[in-house]
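Troubleshooting entry. Yesterday's outputs looked truncated, so today I'm pasting the complete records for two proteins to confirm everything comes through intact. If either block looks cut off, that's the bug. Protein one:
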Amino acid sequence: MSKKNLYWICQVSGWLFYVLFNSLFFKLQNAFNTNVAISQSLMFLFGIAVSHVYRNMIVRFGWLKLKTLYLIPRVIIATVVFATIMDYAQYGIELSIDIAGAKHENFVTIAGNILNLAFVLFFWSLFYFSFHFIENYKKAEIENLKWEASINEIELNKLKSQLNPHFMFNAMNSIRALVDENPGKSKDAITQLSNILRNTLQMGKNKVIPFEEELKIVNDYLALESIRYEERLKSTVDIHPDSRQFQVPPLMIQTLVENGIKHGISRLTAGGVLEIKTNVLNEQLLILIRNSGQISEAKETDSGFGIKNTLQRLQLLYGKAASLKISNENNTTVLTELVIPKNTIE
């Protein structure tokens, strides 16, 4: 419904309610007659006309933008003036059509009629200004949400632009370490890296991608790292079938896997095991990444650029609906727990 239609519906229904209430009052006093009916009909018509002129004055002089301190005295004066005009205009019409009893007997009666109409117009003003205040508040909220969404979008793109070079730098370092040691394996590593690049380029600017696509990147990354670490890195992947119904931020799981290898397994002389397991509980995707190693309490909250980036992206995308926790599961294993809600990011 347009604002114009809503305005006229409120105008007609509001004044109709007022005159019907007055008519009921006369009816209860057994004073309702044809003259009262005509008088109330004139009240209805003049009420709509005068309040509409009043509304145009409010819009023309910009009263909707005024602060309350400056608005109140203007409204009080305007309602008294328009109530006076309305009362005398109706009085003149009633005299011209010779309605019995159409007279102001004394000053008290005149003042009473004007104050009564002024009160009605003041209530009309309160309703009108409240409606626009609420509407402007909603508009401001929408604008704030749009602004926050824009800021989030910029921040997410910034984080992603930081993450891709970071990933590429680490991957190229892995390949460089193989060039002299094993040229054949370095060629295989370049093939794995090209697969990862192809997948990441296809993502475009998506905030989230299907879990299946992220899993392909993780598998290619593990294959790349397996060439580098050989027997020192053993990995297992156990994926719940329903995991494929979810979407995840691109390179997020890969970043956590990389963190487990870099800060855990790579520091162990004998290497270790990295296990990826997913489960679906209460419409949430639970991703568990276990890797050999330990993290000290002093460094538990500072796991490097990749983890900080992941935490920021989770906050921007999901707020409190997602979570990330990294802790020592036992004396030999670090557990990373990532929770992603099922709702799709638009």
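Protein two, checking that the full record survives here as well:
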Amino acid sequence: MASDEFAAHRASKDVQSRKRGQPKTARVRRDRWLTAWLLVITLLFCVGMGIITSVAVFPVAAGMNSLFSPPSSQKEGLSAGPETAALPTETVTRQPGSPTVAPTATPTQTPWPTATTRPTETPTLTPSATPTEADTPTPLPTDTPEPVPPTAVLPPSQQSSGTGGVKWIEVDLSEQRLYAWEGKTLVAVFLISSGAAPYHTITGSYPIYEKHLKANMWGPGYFLPDVPYTMYFYKGYGIHGTYWHNNFGTPMSHGCINLSIPDAEWLYGWAPLGTSVKVHY
């Protein structure tokens, strides 16, 4: 009887001990899982913080390092003055996860020396008191012009010697001829070249107010030295010899009356100052 009670009592204790052990085993197992998850979360947090730190902090550190780094001239060993020593260069250690940027050398272009252009002295032509010719003839020949044959329709030696009347000159632009008169007696006739369009020779009656054995003539784009036997009758309009063409009988000038040199020489000696020049069509 006593053994049965002892067995029953022992069986009841085993049942109670099993009941008490089950909850303890579940708690242990749950605590282990919680610990493992905390470790995983902690590890992930540390890895994330490391990545964030490397991305955010390394550029700032690199910028601060470049800010406090010495100038490039000192890094290369160049001194800023006779007593200034070159500063040591600092090596930046790349942190994990940061990109490596290779420095790019920028070539320096050395300008070529520019040749200095020396100013060219341009001779200044000082105009004389002689009025300028109103026409622009053809350019001067490079060589000495050939002698121009006389263009007189009737050479003065074969014409009337005159009657001693008042001398005057008639210029017919339509016929391209110049007539030398003494009163009503015709003394000589010459072929001329008057002004071509649009620079027509002025018409009217004017006295010869100035005579020159040689005169310089110039205008826009041309300069004629030593124009022979020049006689001005109105401003820059004149009668003169011509050595740059022999196309007499055709309008060629820009206003003046062109004669061959022999004809101009004869007319120059024949007509005194004040001789009237009548120009018409």
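Both blocks look complete. Sanity check on protein two: DSSP finds three helices and ten strands in the chain.
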